[in-house]
Amino acid sequence: MKRFILLLIISWGTFFPQGFQPPVPGNISSDYGPRNLGGIYDWHRGIDYGSPMWTSVEAVEGGNIGEINYQPGSRGGGWYIRVNGDSAHWTYMHLFYDEANNNPISSDNRYEARMARLEDPTGQNNPEDRYIFIFWINRNNNHAEKILSLRGGWWVRARPGDPGYDPNNPYIFDQNGQRILTQGSVVDREIVGPSGASGAAVGHPHLHVGAHRDYRYDINPLYYINHPQPVYTLSILHPPAGAILYHRSNAPEAEQLNERIRVNINSTNGLDLDRGFVYFFNPGETRVFDETHRFAQILFGGPPPNRPFPLPYPQRIINDGEDYRGSFIRSGIDPQGNTPGNDDFYFIGGLSEGGLQFNTKINQAGTGTARIHSEARFSDGPKDMVIRAHSIRWNFQDYYFDTEEQVSIDNFKPYVTRVRIEQAFKQRSVVKYEAHWPQTPVSNTDLGELIIDTDDYCKVGIGLTFTIEFSEEMQITTLPTLQVQMTDGPLKNLI
What is the pTM of this model? Predict the structure, then answer.
């Protein structure tokens, strides 16, 4: 069976929902989703740009400032600012560099972060101490272009040790020498700070951009931000073409190798991939890629709540003791290599008892494991198995790439339960040989020893009738009888 890639390109303006420009120039060094850094699994909840220190960071979307803060620790963001836009809440991390108890200043003295005393000019509110970002016109004379803060419209106290401090008027001034008011919002493309090397990024300057809605789950920022179109490859690692997918009776889920589907999906620099699906079609059937034919799915990040696809929204997942969001099914992710941005992964689709594996026994309602063959969601027989991966950059229904194989489904692995050989004798049938296996196999890999009930000589020239019974989980089937002519001799030596 040939495998192929289908890549459908659609014009940018037709389907891409926003097309915001990147916050900094340069390439993405690590994408959203699964990655393996130094042999440690990590779920990256944003995208990284390999921007040099002090690169001006522009808001991809304007909005109110939701937070300015410093978060230390190996998983901390260092200095960061959050802007709550209409499309998403945007967080820009690793700004400045690691100086939580001091005030980091850019090499050109243009940008500065500090904890400052804010005072309400109307006197209606008590003073507050908050982190602020200062954009200096001339730091030596205490003149600033703007000051970003969670609170807008407040004066900012200068510090006695700063250049240009005036004890008679101890505030930061604007270009006209008036007390400057803090700014609580920004517009599209407005500078919100400098890229740096703070938090977990010490020694590795880059900008981290995250997107979310009300902290409910993460959104892949590439859903909105313009980026180069990557090139995809998609290969099926298991099963091989012509394989039979079936469930092994009495075997634990960990040993259900013939239920598994594993796919390697790779995109240049790990960009843009968002969801993968498994579909089954009968040969020659008109292919409609809908819920009826879709068996399994895996999602990486999702659109905001006002988007109808996918349903349900990406769910909470748990990894390494911490909660992450953005993946409907995390099982099967196996990032390859430790290079940032190399986010290839394996995909194991579907739900099964005791784990997250592909299982042909899922019932038609999709709510659990089918008890018998007739309840299984997909009928037995040959199937065209199509793996379809979607890009988040384009309309979900129209931009995708496929690969497929022909396989067969046997919802419950059949096994022989009884063999009987009979021969006619004086108008009656005489059992010459009978063997059966115990109802409950002694192990998961062995049906146990045959129990032989009859072993007798057959008469030459008289036909034999073979009856073979096999089981498929509560369904007993008898094959059509087979007539053969036997030579003289012990039957047991011929079986």
Answer: 0.71
